[in-house]
Amino acid sequence: MIVKRLEDIIGTDQEVSTDNWISRRLLLKKDGMGFSLHDTVIKKGTETFIWYKNHLEAVYCIEGEGEVEVLDDNGEKTGEIYPLKPGTVYALNGHEKHLLRATADMRMVCVFNPPVTGQEVHDENGVYPLTEED
């Protein structure tokens, strides 16, 4: 059994922060679950381009408000915009490019398949590469 507490992750190398978001990596590839689990805060007033070319992601909003906008393969807006608020889940089952906007700090529970190692860095296209390291 694996038991972890958010308070034990905060301030460690399993908490990654940027200008737009903070990701607390609760479960990683090394935990052997076949997915990774993250507690992520999307900061108010930000817009973030995201594309997980190599990963499927499901995101469940538990606090705050914002929206996700779907982009086409060229990164152009499709007109599909979905409001996000507590109780909303979206799943990127087609590796969709998207814009994530927060009108208030949004706290999200994110699941990645395949699991991330926690060492990934977005490449020049905003993509996490597949990483074999733990």
Describe, in plain words, how this protein is organized in 3D:
The protein has 134 residues and is mainly β. The protein has a single domain, classed as Jelly Rolls (Sandwich). The protein contains one helix and ten strands; from the N terminus they run αββββββββββ. The strands form two sheets. A six-stranded antiparallel beta sheet has the order 1-2-3-10-5-8, with no helix packed on it. It has a four-stranded antiparallel beta sheet with strand order 4-9-6-7, with no helix packed on it. It is globular.
Please provide a brief summary of the model.
This protein has 134 residues and is mostly beta strands. It is built from 1 helix and 10 strands.
What layout of secondary structure does this protein have?
Blueprint lengths: L5 H4 L5 E3 L3 E7 L8 E7 L4 E4 L5 E8 L2 E6 L5 E8 L4 E4 L4 E6 L3 E8 L21
Antiparallel strand pairs: 1-2, 2-3, 3-10, 4-9, 5-8, 5-10, 6-7, 6-9
Count of the separate structural domains: 1
Distance between the termini: 19 Å
Largest sheet: 6 strands, antiparallel
Order of helices and strands: HEEEEEEEEEE
Tell me the Rg in angstroms: 14 Å
**CATH fold assignment:** Jelly Rolls
> How do the strands of the widest beta sheet line up side by side?
1-2-3-10-5-8
Task: Please report the first level of CATH classification, the CATH class.
Answer: Mainly Beta
Class derived from helix and strand content: mainly beta
* Mean pLDDT figure: 93
Within CATH, the superfamily carries the name Jelly Rolls
Q: How many beta-strand runs?
A: 10
- The CATH architecture category equals Sandwich
Strand content: over 45%
Unreliable residue stretches = none
Kindly state the percentage of residues in helix.
Answer: under 10%
Shape: globular
